Amino acid sequence: xxxxxxxxxxxxxxxxxxxxxxxxxxxxxxxxxxxxxxxxxxxxxxxxxxxxxxxxxxxxxxxxxxxxxxxxxxxxxxxxxxxxxxxxxxxxxxxxxxxxxxxxxxxxxxxxxxxxxxxxxxxxxxxxxxxxxxxxxxxxxxxxxxxxxxxxxxxxxxxxxxxxxxxxxxxxxxxxxxxxxxxxxxxxxxxxxxxxxxxxxxxxxxxxxxxxxxxxxxxxxxxxxxxxxxxxxxxxxxxxxxxx
Length: 244
Known about the structure:
31% of the residues lie in helices and 19% in strands. By secondary structure, it is an alpha+beta fold. The N and C termini lie far apart (54 Å).
């Protein structure tokens, strides 16, 4: 009887803490689907890359997505948002992919999952096509944007013209594109070897009852970087101010 009372007390304590310290009562934004990204992020050119998808909670699961927000001319930012189970499951195969992008030329937006960096490939303002001895054309960023290879975890990867053409077709048909040989996405060879081992990824580990309670207390809010004022924070504040 004592054990049952103890377990009941622990469960009630957990549920109470979950409600008190849940990110829903903090600053973590809730994202219903990809359609809300347009109003959440301003500026161009921008890309929103999914870098992790995880859950928290011992009895009641809360679903989270972690993104790397990349602006072509400003500092990157890491962002954590809450979401529903449906949207969370929908993108389990899209870690390492861009889920939202906006072009600088015409402010055209897209939510079709594509390999990171696809927004810039083929744009002469950011790079050029170079012929190799085999006759194949591969994409190279201009020297001013050479850090883009690291931004998108490409390392030695160079998109060829066929990659560019296929990506455009998939974009027009609003169909996810994972590369010519499935190099990108959660199961992609490039993503798995370079991206999933990056410091942005959350390491999976078994957690105890107390670990889950502590997680609710220590979970990062909407933006992990509290010390810096970033373009994303500013844009969100402007949106909220307009609503008021």
